[in-house]
Amino acid sequence: MTLPETETITLNPDGSVLFVTLNRPQSRNAMSLTMVDELMAAFDWVEANPEVRAVVLRGAGGHFCAGGDIKDMAGARQQAAAGDDQAFFTLNRRFGAMVSRAERLPAALVCVLEGAVLGGGFGLACVSDVALAAGDARFGLPETGLGVIPAQIAPFVVRRIGLTQARRLALTGERFDGHGARALGVVHEVADSTEELEQRLRHTLEQILRCAPHANRVTKQLVLSVQERPLDAVLDQAARDFADAVTSEEGQEGTLAFVQKRAPDWT
Protein backbone atom coordinates (compact mmCIF):
# COMPACT_ATOMS: atom_id res chain seq x y z
CA MET A 1 0.00 0.00 0.00
CA THR A 2 1.56 3.26 -1.15
CA LEU A 3 1.58 6.38 0.98
CA PRO A 4 -1.43 8.64 0.38
CA GLU A 5 -0.92 11.90 -1.49
CA THR A 6 -1.28 14.88 0.83
CA GLU A 7 -1.31 18.69 0.71
CA THR A 8 -1.55 19.77 4.34
CA ILE A 9 0.66 17.14 5.99
CA THR A 10 3.94 15.52 5.03
CA LEU A 11 4.61 11.81 5.45
CA ASN A 12 8.18 10.53 5.78
CA PRO A 13 8.71 6.85 6.57
CA ASP A 14 12.08 5.96 8.07
CA GLY A 15 12.43 2.24 8.71
CA SER A 16 9.70 1.27 11.14
CA VAL A 17 8.85 4.88 12.06
CA LEU A 18 6.46 7.17 10.18
CA PHE A 19 7.08 10.90 10.67
CA VAL A 20 3.88 12.90 10.15
CA THR A 21 4.20 16.69 10.04
CA LEU A 22 1.25 19.08 10.09
CA ASN A 23 2.27 21.45 7.33
CA ARG A 24 0.24 24.65 7.30
CA PRO A 25 2.80 26.92 8.98
CA GLN A 26 1.14 30.08 7.66
CA SER A 27 -1.83 29.33 9.96
CA ARG A 28 0.19 27.77 12.80
CA ASN A 29 -0.99 24.40 11.46
CA ALA A 30 -4.66 25.11 12.15
CA MET A 31 -6.68 21.93 11.69
CA SER A 32 -8.66 22.13 8.45
CA LEU A 33 -11.12 19.48 7.28
CA THR A 34 -8.63 18.60 4.53
CA MET A 35 -5.95 18.02 7.16
CA VAL A 36 -8.33 15.85 9.18
CA ASP A 37 -9.09 13.72 6.10
CA GLU A 38 -5.42 13.42 5.22
CA LEU A 39 -4.55 12.33 8.75
CA MET A 40 -7.28 9.69 8.54
CA ALA A 41 -5.74 8.44 5.27
CA ALA A 42 -2.32 8.31 6.93
CA PHE A 43 -3.78 6.30 9.81
CA ASP A 44 -5.31 3.88 7.28
CA TRP A 45 -1.82 3.40 5.85
CA VAL A 46 -0.34 2.74 9.29
CA GLU A 47 -2.99 0.13 10.08
CA ALA A 48 -2.35 -1.58 6.72
CA ASN A 49 1.41 -1.69 7.37
CA PRO A 50 2.09 -3.54 10.63
CA GLU A 51 5.83 -3.03 10.20
CA VAL A 52 5.23 0.60 11.28
CA ARG A 53 5.92 0.54 15.00
CA ALA A 54 5.86 4.24 15.84
CA VAL A 55 4.25 7.38 14.45
CA VAL A 56 5.84 10.74 15.27
CA LEU A 57 3.38 13.63 14.97
CA ARG A 58 4.64 17.21 15.01
CA GLY A 59 4.09 20.57 13.32
CA ALA A 60 6.05 22.63 10.78
CA GLY A 61 7.24 26.19 11.36
CA GLY A 62 7.72 26.03 15.11
CA HIS A 63 4.09 25.27 16.04
CA PHE A 64 2.22 22.03 16.67
CA CYS A 65 -1.40 23.05 16.04
CA ALA A 66 -3.30 26.24 16.93
CA GLY A 67 -6.75 24.60 16.85
CA GLY A 68 -9.52 24.51 14.30
CA ASP A 69 -9.44 26.35 10.97
CA ILE A 70 -11.64 29.48 11.00
CA LYS A 71 -12.14 29.16 7.24
CA ASP A 72 -13.81 25.80 7.70
CA MET A 73 -16.08 27.33 10.32
CA ALA A 74 -17.04 30.06 7.84
CA GLY A 75 -17.71 27.45 5.18
CA ALA A 76 -19.95 25.49 7.53
CA ARG A 77 -21.80 28.70 8.39
CA GLN A 78 -22.52 29.24 4.70
CA GLN A 79 -23.74 25.67 4.34
CA ALA A 80 -25.99 26.12 7.36
CA ALA A 81 -27.38 29.35 5.92
CA ALA A 82 -28.14 27.45 2.70
CA GLY A 83 -30.25 24.95 4.64
CA ASP A 84 -27.76 22.28 5.78
CA ASP A 85 -28.67 21.92 9.46
CA GLN A 86 -25.95 19.26 9.93
CA ALA A 87 -23.04 21.36 8.66
CA PHE A 88 -21.51 22.23 12.03
CA PHE A 89 -22.22 18.79 13.50
CA THR A 90 -20.53 17.04 10.56
CA LEU A 91 -17.46 19.29 10.68
CA ASN A 92 -16.99 18.93 14.43
CA ARG A 93 -17.72 15.22 14.62
CA ARG A 94 -15.24 14.41 11.84
CA PHE A 95 -12.47 15.95 13.93
CA GLY A 96 -13.50 13.87 16.95
CA ALA A 97 -13.43 10.70 14.85
CA MET A 98 -9.86 11.53 13.78
CA VAL A 99 -8.67 12.09 17.37
CA SER A 100 -10.27 8.83 18.48
CA ARG A 101 -8.60 7.05 15.57
CA ALA A 102 -5.23 8.56 16.53
CA GLU A 103 -5.64 7.24 20.07
CA ARG A 104 -6.26 3.71 18.80
CA LEU A 105 -3.45 3.49 16.28
CA PRO A 106 -1.76 0.09 16.56
CA ALA A 107 1.62 1.84 16.43
CA ALA A 108 2.91 3.93 19.32
CA LEU A 109 1.96 7.60 18.83
CA VAL A 110 4.64 10.11 19.86
CA CYS A 111 3.70 13.81 19.78
CA VAL A 112 6.43 16.47 19.64
CA LEU A 113 4.83 19.67 20.93
CA GLU A 114 6.25 23.09 20.12
CA GLY A 115 4.77 26.58 19.88
CA ALA A 116 0.97 26.64 19.85
CA VAL A 117 -0.71 23.53 21.27
CA LEU A 118 -4.25 24.85 21.45
CA GLY A 119 -7.76 23.50 21.05
CA GLY A 120 -7.60 20.60 18.62
CA GLY A 121 -3.83 20.48 19.00
CA PHE A 122 -4.30 20.07 22.74
CA GLY A 123 -6.73 17.23 22.03
CA LEU A 124 -4.17 15.40 19.89
CA ALA A 125 -1.55 15.79 22.61
CA CYS A 126 -3.96 14.13 25.04
CA VAL A 127 -4.24 10.93 22.97
CA SER A 128 -0.51 10.41 22.44
CA ASP A 129 1.26 7.43 23.97
CA VAL A 130 4.31 9.63 24.60
CA ALA A 131 4.22 13.43 24.62
CA LEU A 132 7.43 15.48 24.44
CA ALA A 133 7.16 19.25 24.80
CA ALA A 134 9.33 22.30 24.38
CA GLY A 135 9.52 24.27 27.60
CA ASP A 136 8.17 27.40 25.90
CA ALA A 137 5.28 25.69 24.09
CA ARG A 138 1.87 27.28 24.77
CA PHE A 139 -1.00 25.00 25.78
CA GLY A 140 -4.63 25.85 26.34
CA LEU A 141 -8.32 25.38 25.60
CA PRO A 142 -9.39 28.75 24.16
CA GLU A 143 -12.83 27.67 22.90
CA THR A 144 -15.07 29.21 25.56
CA GLY A 145 -13.33 32.57 25.12
CA LEU A 146 -14.47 32.44 21.48
CA GLY A 147 -18.07 31.62 22.38
CA VAL A 148 -17.83 27.95 21.42
CA ILE A 149 -17.06 24.74 23.33
CA PRO A 150 -14.26 22.12 23.26
CA ALA A 151 -16.84 19.59 22.11
CA GLN A 152 -14.70 16.78 20.68
CA ILE A 153 -11.66 17.51 22.83
CA ALA A 154 -13.07 17.59 26.37
CA PRO A 155 -13.50 13.81 26.84
CA PHE A 156 -9.88 13.14 25.92
CA VAL A 157 -8.65 15.95 28.20
CA VAL A 158 -10.66 14.56 31.12
CA ARG A 159 -9.18 11.10 30.58
CA ARG A 160 -5.67 12.54 30.37
CA ILE A 161 -5.57 14.84 33.39
CA GLY A 162 -8.73 14.13 35.38
CA LEU A 163 -12.04 15.90 35.81
CA THR A 164 -10.92 18.52 38.33
CA GLN A 165 -8.11 19.98 36.25
CA ALA A 166 -10.02 19.62 32.97
CA ARG A 167 -12.90 21.67 34.36
CA ARG A 168 -10.53 24.44 35.43
CA LEU A 169 -8.73 24.62 32.08
CA ALA A 170 -11.90 24.45 29.99
CA LEU A 171 -13.79 27.07 32.02
CA THR A 172 -10.93 29.57 32.34
CA GLY A 173 -9.08 29.18 29.05
CA GLU A 174 -5.81 29.43 30.99
CA ARG A 175 -2.60 29.22 28.95
CA PHE A 176 0.44 27.41 30.30
CA ASP A 177 3.85 26.31 29.07
CA GLY A 178 5.48 22.91 28.61
CA HIS A 179 6.55 22.72 32.25
CA GLY A 180 2.97 23.39 33.33
CA ALA A 181 1.79 20.73 30.91
CA ARG A 182 4.12 18.22 32.52
CA ALA A 183 2.91 19.12 36.01
CA LEU A 184 -0.67 18.50 34.86
CA GLY A 185 0.19 15.18 33.23
CA VAL A 186 -0.47 16.30 29.65
CA VAL A 187 3.13 15.60 28.61
CA HIS A 188 5.78 13.20 29.83
CA GLU A 189 9.01 15.08 29.17
CA VAL A 190 10.02 18.71 28.65
CA ALA A 191 13.08 20.10 26.89
CA ASP A 192 14.34 23.68 27.00
CA SER A 193 16.30 23.56 23.74
CA THR A 194 15.76 22.19 20.26
CA GLU A 195 18.77 19.91 20.64
CA GLU A 196 17.45 18.46 23.90
CA LEU A 197 13.99 17.92 22.39
CA GLU A 198 15.44 16.01 19.44
CA GLN A 199 17.61 13.94 21.78
CA ARG A 200 14.57 13.02 23.86
CA LEU A 201 12.73 12.02 20.70
CA ARG A 202 15.59 9.77 19.59
CA HIS A 203 15.74 8.16 23.01
CA THR A 204 11.99 7.56 23.05
CA LEU A 205 12.05 5.90 19.64
CA GLU A 206 14.98 3.72 20.69
CA GLN A 207 12.98 2.56 23.71
CA ILE A 208 9.88 1.78 21.62
CA LEU A 209 11.87 -0.15 19.04
CA ARG A 210 13.47 -2.31 21.73
CA CYS A 211 10.01 -3.68 22.53
CA ALA A 212 8.45 -6.57 20.63
CA PRO A 213 6.17 -5.24 17.86
CA HIS A 214 3.14 -7.49 18.39
CA ALA A 215 3.46 -7.35 22.18
CA ASN A 216 3.38 -3.55 22.03
CA ARG A 217 0.24 -3.54 19.87
CA VAL A 218 -1.61 -5.95 22.17
CA THR A 219 -0.43 -4.07 25.27
CA LYS A 220 -1.77 -0.80 23.88
CA GLN A 221 -5.17 -2.41 23.29
CA LEU A 222 -5.10 -3.79 26.84
CA VAL A 223 -4.29 -0.44 28.45
CA LEU A 224 -7.02 1.37 26.49
CA SER A 225 -9.61 -1.28 27.35
CA VAL A 226 -9.19 -0.68 31.10
CA GLN A 227 -11.34 2.47 31.00
CA GLU A 228 -14.04 0.93 28.82
CA ARG A 229 -14.75 -2.63 30.02
CA PRO A 230 -15.50 -4.33 33.35
CA LEU A 231 -12.36 -5.41 35.18
CA ASP A 232 -13.04 -9.14 35.02
CA ALA A 233 -13.56 -8.95 31.25
CA VAL A 234 -10.30 -7.03 30.88
CA LEU A 235 -8.40 -9.58 32.96
CA ASP A 236 -9.92 -12.53 31.10
CA GLN A 237 -8.87 -11.07 27.75
CA ALA A 238 -5.44 -10.16 29.13
CA ALA A 239 -4.91 -13.77 30.26
CA ARG A 240 -5.83 -15.06 26.79
CA ASP A 241 -3.49 -12.53 25.18
CA PHE A 242 -0.71 -13.49 27.60
CA ALA A 243 -1.07 -17.18 26.76
CA ASP A 244 -0.90 -16.36 23.05
CA ALA A 245 2.15 -14.14 23.59
CA VAL A 246 4.10 -16.74 25.56
CA THR A 247 3.71 -19.34 22.81
CA SER A 248 4.18 -16.94 19.90
CA GLU A 249 7.38 -16.57 17.88
CA GLU A 250 8.02 -13.26 19.63
CA GLY A 251 7.60 -14.80 23.08
CA GLN A 252 9.92 -17.70 22.29
CA GLU A 253 12.52 -15.39 20.72
CA GLY A 254 12.37 -12.99 23.66
CA THR A 255 12.89 -15.78 26.17
CA LEU A 256 15.73 -17.33 24.18
CA ALA A 257 17.44 -13.96 23.73
CA PHE A 258 17.28 -13.35 27.48
CA VAL A 259 18.81 -16.73 28.24
CA GLN A 260 21.52 -16.23 25.62
CA LYS A 261 22.17 -12.66 26.83
CA ARG A 262 21.66 -11.05 23.44
CA ALA A 263 19.27 -8.59 21.84
CA PRO A 264 16.09 -10.12 20.35
CA ASP A 265 15.78 -10.14 16.58
CA TRP A 266 13.20 -7.33 16.42
CA THR A 267 15.59 -4.67 17.74
From TrEMBL:
CDD domains, per database record: crotonase-like
Signal peptide residue numbers: none
Transmembrane segments: none
UniProt xrefs under Gene3D superfamilies: 2-enoyl-CoA Hydratase, Chain A, domain 1 (3.90.226.10), Lyase 2-enoyl-coa Hydratase, Chain A, domain 2 (1.10.12.10)
InterPro entries linked: ClpP/crotonase-like_dom_sf (IPR029045), Enoyl-CoA_hydra/iso (IPR001753), Enoyl-CoA_hydra_C (IPR014748), Enoyl-CoA_Hydratase/Isomerase (IPR051683)
Family assignment from sequence similarity: Belongs to the enoyl-CoA hydratase/isomerase family.
Name by which UniProt lists this protein: Enoyl-CoA hydratase
Species classification: Bacteria, Pseudomonadati, Pseudomonadota, Gammaproteobacteria, Oceanospirillales
